[in-house]
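Usage

Read records sequentially. Each one opens with the input sequence:
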Amino acid sequence: MNHMEEIKGYSRGMAVLVFFMAALFILGCGDKGETPVPDEDGTPPSVTVPDELKIISFNILEGMKGDRPANYDNFVNWVKTHDPDILAIQEANGFRQESLEQLAARFGHPYVITNLKATDNYPVALTSKYPLESRRRVTMHVSHGAIFAKLKDRDFNIVVTHLWPQSYWHTPGDGLGNDYRLHEINVILDSTVRKFPGEPHWILVGDFNAVSRRDFSPEVTTNNYWVTDQIEAEGFKDAIHHLHGTREENAQPYDFRYPGRRIDFIFASQPLLGRLIKAHPIYDDFVDTYSDHPAMYMEVSLK
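and closes with the structure output:
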C-alpha cells in the first residue's frame, strides 16, 4: 500500500468512527425521554390531543418532601389515579429540569417545563402528556414566578403561578404584602393575556395566596380581595364558581372543606367557560397526608 492509499484508508476509517459516535450520541439523548422517539423515516410520531382535557393544579409542599423517602411512589400512583393531561405544580422545590423529567416520565408525562430562579427555592412547573410550547417564563419582579405555555397546535394557553405568601409584609415590617401580591399578578397579566388580546382561550392556575369574595357572603367586607378582583376584571372566572355557583348567587355553593380560606384556583377566560365539564377540589387521604393544599381539578372541552 502506497502513502496515498494509507491516507485514503485512514480517512474512510475516521468517517466510519464519526458515524458510529454520532449514532451513539443520538441514542444517548433519546434515553432521557425529553422528546418522543422518531418514526423510521426520521419524523416525530404524531400526537393527537384529545377533545377533552383534564388539568390538575397542585401545591406539592416543598417538592413533595413527605413522599421523598418513598422515592415519590405515592405521588406517582396518585397522579396515575387521577390521570391528568396537564399537571401544574407549585413548590417544585429541589427539582431541576432533568430530575422532574425523570419523575414525570413515571406517570406518563414526557413534556416538562420548569421555571428555576437563582433567588427562589419555590419554583412552579408544568408536566404534560402532550407537547407544550413554552412561551414565557416570568421571573423578574415576582417572588415564585410563572410559566406561560401553549398546548402545541391547539388554541389553548395555560399560565401557572404561585404568589407571595405573606399578607402583612413584603420586606419585614413594611405592611406591603397585599400590595406586592397585587403587583405580581399585574406583572403576570402584562406578560400573558394582556400581551395577546387576540387569543381567547386561557386558564390561569396556581396558589394565589389570596381569597375570593365569591367564597364569602356579600356582607363580609374585611378580607383583601385585590388579586382575585383583578383577575376577574381581566375577564376570568373561577371554574368551580362557574359550574357550582357562589354565595352571592345561591345559598348552597360548592361545599369546600375549608370554607372561606381557599387560596388555590383554576381561572378560565370567558370563551372557555361554556366549555367547562367538571371543576372541583380534590380531597383525599393522599392530599391530606402529603400537602397542606387541596389540588384543583378541571375538565374542559377543546371542541
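Summary fields computed downstream for this record:
- The chain has nine helices and twelve strands.
- The CA atoms of residues 217 and 247 lie 5 Å apart.
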